[in-house]
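Support request, please re-run this one:
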Amino acid sequence: MIPRLMQSVTLPAARVEASRRQFLIGALAAGTGIAVGFHLLHASPAAAAETTSAEGAHSFSPYLIIDGDGKVTVLSSQFEMGQGSYNGLATLVAEELDADWSAIDVKGAAGNIKAYGNLAFGGAIQATGGSTSMASSWERYRKAGAAARAMLVAAAASEWGVDAAEITVENGILAHPSGKSGGFGVFAAKAAAMPAPTDVKLKQPGDWKLIGNAGLKRFDSARKTNGTEQYTIDVKLPGMLTAVMIHPPLFGAKAKSFDPSAARGIKGVVDVVETPRGIAVIGEHMWAAIKGREAVKVEWDDTAAEKRGTQAVMSTYRDLAKKTPAAVARKEGDADAAFAQAAKVIEASFEFPYLAHAALEPLNAVARMNEDGTLEVWGGHQFPDVYQKLAGEIAGIAPDKVRLNVMKSGGSFGRRAVFDGDVVVEAVHAAKAIGFRAPVKVQWTREDDMRAGRYRPAYVHTLKAGIDADGKLVAWNNHIVGQSIMAKTAFEGMVKNGVDPTSVEGASNLPYGIPNQTVGLTTTDVGVPVLWWRSVGSTHTAFAAETFLDEVAEAAGRDPVEFRLSLLEPESRHATVLKLAAEKAEWQKPLPEGRFRGVALAESFGSVVAQIAEVSPDGNGGIKVERVVAAVDCGLAINPDQVRAQVEGGIGFGLGAILGEEITLTDGKVDQGNFDVYTPLRIDSMPKVEVHIVPSANPPSGIGEPGVPPIGPAVANAAYKALGKRIRVMPFSKSLNA
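Re-run finished. Output below.
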C-alpha cells in the first residue's frame, strides 16, 4: 500500500495505482510512514549544496540554485534519457519563477530521498520510470519556483526599501515603478539566505506563459544538435582506464577458471580481474581492452545455466496456454455460462518474442575513489539511491560517502532501471579490483548490450470471445503465459495470489463493458533475465486484446470503431480519444485504392491513446505503414510539443518492434548481436504521424510510454484488410513470411 501523501502533493488515485502496477516500487513505501510535502523544499540544504559547484551559486532549495550572473539551474529528481523530463521540470520552475528561459539549465541530482523521492511511488525511492516524472513533479517543482521568486522579491524589497507587493518579475528581471530594477543574480545571495516561505500561491492557468506553450523550444536542443551534450560515454577523467566485460555465454553460468596471460601481454592492457558479474579486462583505452578480451580464455560452469532455445521455450508456453491458468487476475460474471449460450465463439492465440531495449548508447559507468574517501560514480542513474547503496557496499563505505554524478543517457526504455546495479556494480568492482588506483570506465559494446539479458519477456496469449445473436460481446477470456518481471527480486512480494501485475496490465483493466470476462495468468520459470521495456505489460496485452477485438467485430458484422464505442461509456476518456482519432483520420471517408486503415485503443500509465494506421501492400507480401493519426489524453500537457514528440517516438519504437525485432536463443545462447540482425525501425520506414492532444485541466499523467501499445494492433488490423491475413505471431516478418 502506498502511504498517504500530504495534501500539498496531490496525485489522482488512479494515477498512483497505475504507477504501482507499472513498477511496483510502492512496496518500498509500505509501512514507512513517509510524508512528502512542501516543507521539504529546505529539507536538506547540505544535499543541495553538494550539487552546487559553480562559484557564486546560491542554493534556494534542493530543487534549484541561482548563480551570481542570474543563471537558474534546476536540480532534477528525474533522470533524463531523451524523454524530456529535464525540459518539463525546467518549464515548471521557470513558469513560477518568471525566469528568463534562455538562462535555464538542468542538472541531475541524487542523494536526498526526502527531496527527490518519486511521489508516484510513495516517495520512498528516487526513480524515473512508469512515465511518472511530471505527475510526481507537478506541484513540487512549481512550488520550488514560486518560493524562490518570493525570496528574490523579498530581498529586492529589502534592498530598495519598498513594498514587496509593488515589485514585478518578468524574464528574470525584478522591477519597481520607481525605476529600480535588477536581475536575479543581483539579489541571489541575499535571497538564498532568507527563510523559505511556508506556503506560496501558484499561478492560475490563465497566467501561464510557459506551461502549455506549444511554441516553447527545448532548452537543450542546441547542444544536442551540435554535439556538445555530454553523456557517460563522453566522460574523460585524468588517468582513467577503460574496461570491457566478459559475460557468461549462457544465462546462469559462472566462470570456473580463466587464463589472462595472453591478454596481459597485449600493449595497453592493464589488468584482467574477476568480478561477480564476469571477467573485466582493463586497458589504457577501449581498443586495448577489446583486444585483451579476445585473448582471455575462460572455462565456464554452466551447471545452473538456462540451456533451452526459443523453440523449446515457446513450445512449452503454447502447451501451458491451452491449460487452465495457474492464477486469475480478473473475473467478472460467469464467462463459462456465457460462452455456452453464445451464438458465436471466436478463438485465437498470439505469440510475442523477447525484445531488447537497444538504446543508442550502450550501458556504461565510471567509478573513482577520491583522496577524501568518497566514491564518485558517473552513469545513467535511473535508480540512483539503489546504486548508491550497492556501490557503498562494494567499496566498504557508507552510502552517504558515494556521490552519484547523474549523467544524461542516450536512451534507456527501462534498461537502466535495475535492482542489482548492473554496469554500475561492474565499474565499482573493477575499480576495487585494482585497488582504486585509477578511475575505471566500464563500457559495454553493442554485442554486450544485446546479449547480456534484461529483455521484455516472451509471452503467449490465448483468447476466446462469445457474441450473442444480436452481435453483442457477452463473454471474454484471456490466458497469458510468460515470465514475471518481479519474481525472484526484492519486490516479489508485490506478486499477489500468483499474479504479477506487470504481466497482465492492459488486459486485466480493459475499459470495455464486457459483462462476463476472465483474465488468467500462468507464470513460467525460465533462466532468461527479463525487465520492463517501454510500456511494460501493455506491449503485448494491447496487441492481443485490440487485434482480437477486431476479429470479434468482424464476426459480429460491426465497424471496428463503432463496435468499440458501443462497449465504452459515451463520455469516458476512452470514447473521447477514440472519437477524436476517428474524426481526424476521417474514418468514414473512403481511402484511395491500395490504402487500408486499422484502429486500436489503449490505456497505460494514466493516459489514453487511440491510433489509426494507414497501410499499403509493399508488393513483397508485406505492408508499408503510410500514416498514423493519434489522439491522446495525458491530462494537462505541460509541453505540448514534447507530448507530440513522445507519441511520435513511441510509434516509431513500437512499430520497429512489431515489424522485425526479436531476441532468439539457440541452446540458451542469444543469437542477435548488433543492428544488422536486430532491426529497430529504419528512418525510411517511419510513417507520417499526426498527434492530437485532448485539452485537459487534470494533472499531467504519463506520456513517455503510452504511444507504444496501440501502434502494433492498429497496423495489424490495417494489414489484415490489406493482405487478408491475421497477424498473430510477432514480429510481422515472421508471420508474413510463414
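The first helix runs from residue 13 to 23. Residues 271 and 434 are 8 Å apart (CA to CA).
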